[in-house]
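F.,

This is the one I mentioned.
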């Protein structure tokens, strides 16, 4: 009489082959999609509600400035005056190597005849609302005044007025402080799309 086979066999070789093939495919797809996973989670994890609100506020302010400048340009073209001559400087907070550092907020500015002679276009705005780089358009000759609240980074950091002849440089401290700079622009420095210092 033949003895009974009493071994419990749940998986045979073909099922094990199927399972290991599926596991291999899953591991391959996981490794292939690894870089995209970290980009998505890093971007979403680093932004909280307050940062999102500040970023949205800064983006809205930039959109408002853009719309205002486009409107003024359209008004000038419609009036047959064309684009007025202007000079442009860069207001930046940078270290001794020229890298952006610290930050600033322009709290007040004025030019000849009020603030219509000066336009600010921020480029590098941090999550805290402080800028690191701003293009400044000067549209009339005369004396201009810019007041800033600024702070420096860990390394020596200063506010520079790139493109401005005899440009002042303001050394910054680690804590936020107020600075006021006054500088003249002459009529011969105003050209169409002319950047000062070039």
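My design for it:
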């Amino acid at each position: 009489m033949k003895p009974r086979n009493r071994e419990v066999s749940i998986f045979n070789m073909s099922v094990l082959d199927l399972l290991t093939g599926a596991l291999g495919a899953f591991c391959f797809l996981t490794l292939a999609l690894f870089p995209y996973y970290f980009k998505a989670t890093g971007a979403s994890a680093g932004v909280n509600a307050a940062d999102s609100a500040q970023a949205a506020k800064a983006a809205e302010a930039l959109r408002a400035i853009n719309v205002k400048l486009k409107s003024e340009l359209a008004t000038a073209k419609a009036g047959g005056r064309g684009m007025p001559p202007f000079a442009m400087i860069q207001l930046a907070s940078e270290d001794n190597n020229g890298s952006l550092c610290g930050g600033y907020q322009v709290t007040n500015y004025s030019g000849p005849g009020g603030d219509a002679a000066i336009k600010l276009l921020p480029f590098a705005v941090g999550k805290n609302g402080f800028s690191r780089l701003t293009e400044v358009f000067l549209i009339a000759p005369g004396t201009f005044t810019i007041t800033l609240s600024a702070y420096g980074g860990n390394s020596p950091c200063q506010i520079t007025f790139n493109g401005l002849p005899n440009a002042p440089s303001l050394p910054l401290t680690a804590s936020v402080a107020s600075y006021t700079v006054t500088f003249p622009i002459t009529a011969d420095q105003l050209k169409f799309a002319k950047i000062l210092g070039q």
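The CA atoms of residues 85 and 191 lie 5 Å apart.

Talk soon.
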